[in-house]
Amino acid sequence: xxxxxxxxxxxxxxxxxxxxxxxxxxxxxxxxxxxxxxxxxxxxxxxxxxxxxxxxxxxxxxxxxxxxxxxxxxxxxxxxxxxxxxxxxxxxxxxxxxxxxxxxxxxxxxxxxxxxxxxxxxxxxxxxxxxxxxxxxxxxxxxxxxxxxxxxxxxxxxxxxxxxxxxxxxxxxxxxxxxxxxxxxxxxxxxxxxxxxxxxxxxxxxxxxxxxxxxxxxxxxxxxxxxxxxxxxxxxxxxxxxxxxxxxxxxxxxxxxxxxxxxxxxxxxxxxxxxxxxxxxxxxxxxxxxxxxxxxxxxxxxxxxxxxxxxxxxxxxxxxxxxxxxxxxxxxxxxxxxxxxxxxxxxxxxxxxxxxxxxxxxxxxxx
Length: 367
Known about the structure:
- 16% of the residues lie in helices and 43% in strands.
- By secondary structure, it is of the alpha+beta class.
- The chain has a 9-stranded antiparallel sheet. An 8-stranded antiparallel sheet has the order 6-2-3-4-17-16-15-10. The chain has a 5-stranded antiparallel sheet with strand order 5-1-7-8-9.
């Protein structure tokens, strides 16, 4: 293999596909990037047996070939090369020669035969969605994906596609996030996409990205984002009937400025660290929300004014869970609905239902 390629193109591609490379793999080749030169293209892939990321960039290919090189070493070298044009050449001993200006490297590669076959699947359904919309939907729900592997199904989000509607649902047992959009779609399908996969998709969607194509198979999904493809296994299992967990009754309703309540909860959070889990008390009464927090290091109190309709209620929350829900609302004002001090808080837009966030309360002591 012998090619010339632009350093900026190569560096961006290597940086992205490296995120799908396994850091500690039983198969040594999986700690590398698969590189293939053919036609006038350079193909790069990273794969950790759960998620694969591939891309192609333009290159001047003098002779075609394939090689696997250490992802970390190759990425570090490319990032620090002095000139814009990079020459990459391999020989029959799997030595890879990298030249840019006066800088020269020789690194040991591996045969592409040692690289596991990338996942392939027979597409059963596909849907196109605007990149900006998909990015916002993932961002507003992925925070509620569980990191507890004892229930693998909740380490991913439920993607629901029905006629002209797309919904993403994430649950971790303490909170739930639902985001809905109306899209031009005529398929009915639901599947669970790992949280890690969604995070990678999120990083790849640019502001100017037009459409992302989701191609779904029996056990895998592929996101086509510009020149990149992200192929991931789907999580098998039965997802919770999330509609049944949303409280139907309401005793208290509040419309509040989102930034105002975020700042107040944030101030209470100063008394909570990683190891401290004292609840933030919220008393909804007389057109005010009284906030307080008592922990082993001190006490804090604050009050904000807003219309409170219905019964007075005192309720406590994990500050981080509450802040995550509020920060991902993406509206100037939110509507908070409560059904007593032991029922989950519901956060929605003031108008419409394009997102719903639930936060399960913490039990309060009588202190």
